[in-house]
Design a protein that fits this description.
By secondary structure, this protein is of the alpha/beta class. The protein is built from ten helices and twelve strands. 39% of the residues lie in helices and 17% in strands. Bound molecules: but-2-yn-1-yl trihydrogen diphosphate and iron/sulfur cluster.
């Protein structure tokens, strides 16, 4: 067996920053600190932070008055921020700066009178937070069919934003459908799919061309990790999303000579190392990292005096 690794893979700048914020909040304010929603969509990250004293909740009402409340990397609506103030919580915002940029674009487009189409997955926390920043009409669309059906106030005043972790290819079809349906709209054309999502999808496509099976390390609720599995599969290579090495089924590897591994933006690198060890067992298996995009993006950790 030979193992190939995609590059880049794993943690992005927004995930590094969000996790660092929880760690710094624990140091600065002591345990417990409360986090609204999973800080990032990875069960191992959550378990580790839980052992240090982070408490993850889905409702602000479950956080005691006066406690530190951290908003996850996926972002929240202004209504949630205001409610936290009303409940007497000390809020810290770990929203990825790239998601926050999308928030600002939604309110700017609404302010100049546009209906905003949010291209994304209904029910995903990032999409809910993004829609919450609307000050006018907003519509979530996930498919080309939904673009055909959406009802807007003025067809020449339609703008759009996207969830940051979508499939670059699927989203191109939706952009096309929007431009076809609203040809008179002069809203700025751009994708908000982030650099990390784009680079990881590009890298997994390259990996899938080279191997017999692709393993994507990531949790089941991680949108960007699911997209990596789909991209590999679309290349015609069987691909599986695994939370950890223990989920690898022996039948996936039957007759397989070359295994490709990548990891979603929220999956820690130690899980990739464990997958390699699991596959290699006692054998000396060659591991090759493919060449890929160099990533130098880092986000600052804010001051956490609350
Ligand atoms: O949005 P997604 O479900 O991919 O979230 P994640 O926590 O797996 O990845 C990082 C992010 C963001 C925002
Ligand atoms: Fe930010 Fe992109 Fe990472 Fe999401 S995947 S946290 S948008 S850098």
């Amino acid at each position: 067996m030979k193992i190939f690794l995609a590059r880049p893979r794993g943690f992005c700048a927004g995930v590094n920053r969000a996790i660092a914020i929880v760690n710094k909040a624990l140091e600065r304010h002591g345990a417990p600190v409360f986090v609204l929603h999973e800080i990032v969509h990875n069960s191992h990250v959550i378990d580790e932070l839980r052992t240090k004293g982070a408490v993850f909740v889905e409702r602000l009402e479950d956080i005691p008055q006066g406690a530190v409340a951290i908003f996850s990397a996926h972002g929240v609506s202004p209504a949630v921020e205001e409610k936290a103030v009303k409940l007497g919580l000390r809020s810290i915002d770990a929203t990825c700066p790239l998601v926050a940029t999308v928030h600002r674009r939604v309110s700017r487009l609404n302010k100049i009178g546009y209906d905003v189409l949010v291209i994304g997955h209904k029910g995903h926390p990032e999409v809910e937070g993004t829609c919450g920043h609307a000050t006018g009409n907003v519509h979530v669309v996930s498919t080309v069919e939904e673009v055909a059906e959406v009802v807007v106030a003025d067809e020449s005043m339609v703008g759009y934003v996207t969830q940051t972790t979508l499939s670059v290819d699927d989203t191109k079809d939706i952009f096309e459908a929007i431009h076809k349906r609203f040809p008179l709209s002069s809203a700025p054309e751009r994708s908000d799919i982030c650099y990390a999502t784009t680079n990881r999808q590009h890298a997994v496509r390259k990996l899938a061309e080279k191997v017999d099976v692709v393993l994507v390390v990531g949790s089941k609720n991680s949108s960007n990790s699911n997209r990596l599995r789909e991209v590999a599969q679309l290349q015609g290579t069987p691909a599986y999303l695994i939370d950890h090495a223990g989920e690898i089924a022996s039948e996936w590897l039957a007759g397989v000579e070359r295994v490709g591994i990548t990891a979603g933006a929220s999956a820690p690198e130690h899980l990739v190392t464990e997958v390699i060890q699991h596959l290699a067992g006692e054998e000396d298996v060659p591991v090759t990292e493919l060449e890929g995009e160099e990533e130098n993006i880092r986000f600052q950790i804010p001051d956490l005096d609350v």
